[in-house]
Amino acid sequence: MLSHLEASQLDSFYRQHVTPLKTRLDTRYMCRATFWTDLRLLAATFLVWHSALRAPAAFRNLMAQRMDLEADPSTSVVSQIASYSQIFRSKV
Asked: Which helix (DSSP H) or strand (DSSP E) does residue 56 occupy?
């Protein structure tokens, strides 16, 4: 999805395409949120986290690379997404 964009276009792409989508998702969540939906979300998060503990080494290595990218304050969110995409493609 981002491979056809130059690095200088990533931030504007994020603002034009990703931000409106995230806003719609946030608004939808806020309109429908209840104690039970939040509890279900927490349970789903726990299950994903728990299954990640038993994940294969390749997946754990991918997640470690992702954490390294997030720890670097010099990278923008969009460049991190592009980096994740490159990491994922290299693993497949």
From this structure: none
pLDDT at 60: 65
Tokens of 66: 């992702």
Kindly state the tokens that stand for 16: 């034009």
8 A C-beta contact, residue 67 and residue 34 = no
pTM over 0.90: no
Q: How many separate helices (H) and strands (E) can be counted in the chain? A: 5, 0
The DSSP output letter for 78 is H
Question: Residue 34: which region, alpha, beta or left (left: phi > 0; alpha: psi -120 to 50)?
Answer: beta
Q: Find where tokens 């939906």 sit.
A: 37
Cα–Cα distance measured from residue 71 to residue 75, given in angstroms and rounded to the nearest whole number: 9
Predicted confidence (pLDDT) per residue in 28-41, tens digit: 989 999 999 999 98
SS3 91: helix
